[in-house]
Write a structure and sequence with these properties.
The complex is a heterodimer of chains A (about 270) and B (about 325). With about 270 residues, chain A is mainly alpha-helical. Helix content of chain A is about 75%, strand content about 0%. Chain B starts with a strand and ends with a helix. The chains are: A mainly alpha (about 270), B alpha/beta (about 325).
């Protein structure tokens, strides 16, 4: 019997990352989403900015980049467990001694990283073509914000993947979940424009704090102190999501073993 | 006395299903109904039964993938429900069919990934994967994508996957299902090799000759219950009083089968389809002398070859399963 070591657990996460990446890179539909769609979105977003002038370029780039990340998280991350179930690989995964949370973490991390890298490339390319400077006000804070954004989104994805299994109706309404989060998290415009009662909802979503930190670090929409506060909120929420996922995963996996729903073919 | 590695005690599993949207009705299906058996260390134990008998459900409970409705089971003394994590490190499992692999990845990538899931050290994994590819006959094809593999190759890759962490106990659920005769024979040889390597193996199958050729003891399961449990030799002895008459026919109406079954000299009747023909297999204590009486009941149907032979394990199985139905 093999001992579960920290290094071994890290390897589980990294290989789950690698498997997800390799799978995505061999799927034409996913490749379109990673390589072509962001190019079109970046072109449209920056074209629409024409009248506002080049100073707003970075705000639009970050905002529409976040919408792309959220879409990836929703469709790819949210379906992490469901996809394995349809593929028939959920049983061998659950039947292994590895933690399902580690596996999902690695998979969502792969999807987010891949999406992020593709968007950085696309927006840089289109901005250069259209002659918009992409000036970052606080480069150090920006790098920190990007790392924490990836971490926060992956932790959020961990919860989403389990909720999609636990409450199957959420999975069925996946398309309707795309736009409310763009709006509630202030990806493309400040949430101050929304009715006051929506603000507490925004505060509970870690992508909101990610948008705050990224916009602040690039465009100076908020002060440095507020950027650091957004970082603290992302860390707090991420840790809360990780703690919450412990119980959630135990519950969904136990229930799936009771309901015989680990595989789609009894 | 050999130690029991698998202990199953009164295991029961009920599936619940609901139908309807407004007026919901729920239905319960008893898939496994109080099954009890033990498997000794190093034994190759067979669970034999027709489709839907409860074999896969039993294996899924023992491999921690299903929670039993009642009863208990332990693997090396560890409870499959309460100590699932510890059980998982000690067992390997293969389910029949082609699912359960990443088709867009190579066979090698699949094995590397599953080795990591079992916390196998990368250096050990590399060596082990190499040995296993040899064992299952996939050496040289490991870098190809699984989607290009034949059904038999995928099935053999499943076996390699289950052995990556060198488990003490193996569950093989209909591993030869859907394989061509050559593929099935190679896989059976691989199972024999595993047994020589002192693995404890629980094999489910509905192929009699497979159970006869491989297993030291066989439990016959039907409708969720074990209806016989013995060595293949002893199971065959249960039909030693019978002989078997096989009559080849070309189209046999069900009422004729029933008429034959109703004869006093007939113990059991089964009909097997073979290409365009059917073979009526009749168990009788009268031996070849029963043939004229049987032919008389066929009412002028076109009859092919008629043979009389000694009973096999398959005949014992037909008697057991037929009797339980």
């Amino acid at each position: 019997m093999k001992e579960k070591t920290l290094l071994g657990s890290l390897r589980v996460m990294l290989l789950s990352f690698e498997v997800q990446l390799r799978q995505n890179l061999t799927d034409g539909f996913v490749l379109f989403g990673i390589l072509v769609q962001p190019l079109l979105v970046a072109f449209m977003a920056l074209w629409m900015l024409k009248d506002k002038g080049p100073d707003h370029a970075i705000f639009v780039v970050i905002g529409s980049g976040l919408t792309g990340l959220w879409t990836t998280l929703l469709f790819d991350g949210g379906n992490s467990i469901t996809g394995e179930r349809w593929n028939g690989t959920l049983e061998p995964l659950v039947g292994s001694p590895s933690s399902m949370r580690l596996i999902v973490f690695g998979k969502v991390l792969a999807s987010i990283t891949q999406s992020l890298l593709s968007m950085v490339g696309c927006y840089t390319l289109i901005s250069l073509i259209m002659g918009y400077p992409l000036t970052i006000l606080h480069p150090g804070l920006f790098i920190g914000s990007v790392i924490l954004t990836v971490f926060a989104l992956v932790c959020f994805g961990l919860i989403m993947a389990s909720l999609f299994i636990l409450i199957r109706d959420i999975g069925r309404m996946i398309n309707t979940l795309e736009f409310p989060v763009y709006i509630l998290c202030g990806f493309l415009f400040p949430i101050a424009l929304l009715p006051g009662w929506t603000t507490p909802i925004s505060y509970l979503l870690s992508p909101y704090w990610a948008a705050q930190a990224l916009h602040g670090a690039t465009s100076g929409t908020i002060s440095v102190n507020k950027i650091l506060f957004a970082w603290a909120m992302m860390i707090t929420f991420s840790l809360a999501y990780i703690l919450l996922s412990e119980g959630l995963y135990r519950k969904i996996l136990y229930r799936a073993r009771v309901d015989a729903s680990l595989d789609t073919q009894g | 006395m050999r130690m029991n590695v698998i202990e199953v005690n009164n295991l029961r599993r009920i599936y619940k299903s609901t139908t309807g949207v407004i007026k919901r009705t729920s239905k319960e299906i008893v898939a496994v109904d109080g099954v009890t058996f033990d498997v000794h260390e190093g034994e190759l134990y067979g669970l034999l039964g027709p489709n839907g008998a409860g074999k896969t459900t039993t294996v899924k409970m023992l491999t921690t993938l299903l929670i039993p409705t009642a009863g208990s089971a332990t693997i090396k003394g560890l409870d499959v429900e309460r100590q699932a994590d510890q059980v998982r490190s000690r067992i390997g499992f293969v389910f029949g069919g082609e699912r359960g692999l990443y088709w867009r990845l190579s066979g090698l990538d699949n094995l590397r990934y599953f080795a990591s899931l079992y916390y196998v050290d990368p250096d050990v994994a590399r060596k082990r994967i190499d040995e296993l590819l040899d064992l299952v006959g996939l050496k040289g094809r490991e870098k190809e994508r699984v989607e290009g593999y034949s059904r038999g190759m995928r099935q053999r890759l499943h076996i390699a996957r289950a052995l990556l962490h060198d488990p003490e106990v193996l569950f093989l659920d209909e591993p030869t299902i859907g394989l061509d005769p050559v593929g099935a024979r190679e896989l059976r040889q691989a199972v024999r090799n595993l047994q020589s390597a002192k693995k404890t193996i629980l094999l489910t199958t509905h192929y009699m000759f497979e159970a006869d050729a491989l297993c030291q003891r066989i439990a016959v399961i039907n409708h969720g219950k074990i209806i016989a449990l013995d060595t293949p030799e002893n199971l065959k002895r249960t039909v030693v009083d019978l002989s078997v008459v096989e009559i080849e026919l070309f189209g046999i109406p069900p009422e004729v089968v029933e008429k034959v079954r109703g004869l006093k000299i007939v113990d059991n009747v089964a009909v097997e389809s073979r290409d365009q023909r059917q073979v009526m297999i009749v168990h009788t204590s009268n031996g070849p002398e029963a043939i004229p009486a049987l032919v008389a009941e066929l009412n002028g149907l076109k009859v092919g070859r008629i043979i009389s032979r000694e009973p096999t394990l398959e005949d014992a199985y037909v008697r057991l399963v037929g009797g339980a139905e």
